[in-house]
Amino acid sequence: MVPFSAAALFVTLRVLLLSVSTSPVEAVPMTSNVTTHSKVASTSSSYWVANIQRQGTVAFGDASYKVFRNVQDYGATGDGTTDDTAAINSAITDGNRCGLGCDSSTVTPAIVYFPPGTYLVSAPIIQSYYSQFIGDAVTIPTIKASASFTGIAVIDSDPYTKGANWYTNQNNFYRQVRNFVIDITSMPATTGACIHWQVAQATSLQNIVFEMVQGGTDNHQEGIFMDNGSGGFYSDLVFNGGNYGMFVGNQQFTTRNLTFNNCNTAVYMNWNWVWNLKSITVNNVSFPVLPFSSYSNSCGREADSRASARGWRKYVKHPNQPDRGLRPSPRQQVRRNAKRYHHSLQHDWQYSDHRQHARH
Ligand SMILES: *[C@@H]1O[C@H](CO)[C@@H](O)[C@H](O)[C@H]1NC(C)=O
Ligand SMILES: *[C@@H]1O[C@H](CO)[C@@H](O)[C@H](O)[C@H]1NC(C)=O
Ligand SMILES: *[C@@H]1O[C@H](CO)[C@@H](O)[C@H](O)[C@H]1NC(C)=O
Ligand SMILES: *[C@@H]1O[C@H](CO)[C@@H](O)[C@H](O)[C@H]1NC(C)=O
After folding, report:
1. How far out from the chain centre does Cα 84 lie?
2. Global pTM?
3. Exposed site from 97, 196, 226, 258, fewest CB < 10 Å?
4. 345 lines ligand 1 (CB under 6 A)
């Protein structure tokens, strides 16, 4: 544990306050003739993020660079029938953002705001480095995959190009997604994921509903697909349907208030180095958490061979993972996974739902 005290917190706060008051940035709002960015948003929602005056400029670089973008200012309609993919992606990439070949940057941040509406997409919305996607908090927007959607997930935080990721997974910082419904129910049950979230610190998913096809043995849909990364946070997520509510592997991860309804498996924990699950609600789900518990489903069978400690030692290669890329040998991976597994059991797991999670 990192030693921590109220005194240390006080000192930290004081330092922060002092640095704010001596900062050259204006702390007091100036009167300004800068207009809000969207006609649509200001009339359709009372949410402050949509309507507040944007009067600052980016800290580094071109003063005309826009931090705040409303997707409707870039042509997204939110009407549920027009394909809004290109418009949304142009709202994200405007201003020479950190994309393919960049790896990381702190000088081109973006808040991408989605007014109320249903945004139909046919390919991934790519979340460039240092982007926040904020849906209207008063009337939550839906991002809906079309029946012919192609790509790894509706929102992709780390695209693969020729088998390599755009960003280094442990260095994929400053991403937030909040206040959305992501709906892949129009896609065939055999395919589709809502979010590919391969991220590290300063990242969060909050207040999101994942709508997936419910039930079926050929159901391969997933709310979150996460191969790896280094830290992050989830809160207030609801997963409806799908084969896996979430298929995840990461380290130093904190998750709370997750609800799984009618998923085949709630959580497929592919691997972890420290993962806290707190306040998990599981309704009508065959397998709550794999492979951590040897859990029996309502028929009394053992849930799955992967639910046993022995099965856990198999690192599962997800079909969405590229074939290229560094992978430990199966033998190394067996050793690593065994270590991770014991480490998790000894120190790091927190269970709030005693009915559902049996420990070995
Ligand atoms: C207000 O608008 C005028 C004319 O477009 C411009 O010259 C001026 O810089 C603006 N002021 C602010 C504070 O943005
Ligand atoms: C339970 O979940 C399955 C899908 O896995 C769904 O078909 C069924 O309707 C659900 N039952 C209830 C009572 O919601
Ligand atoms: C948990 O998440 C749900 C759905 O987002 C939300 O309605 C509820 O207020 C949250 N509860 C707590 C205790 O945070
Ligand atoms: C993370 O996952 C990607 C995609 O599956 C893979 O290419 C990469 O090698 C993985 N990185 C680590 C450190 O395991």
Report:
1. 20
2. 0.76
3. 97
4. no
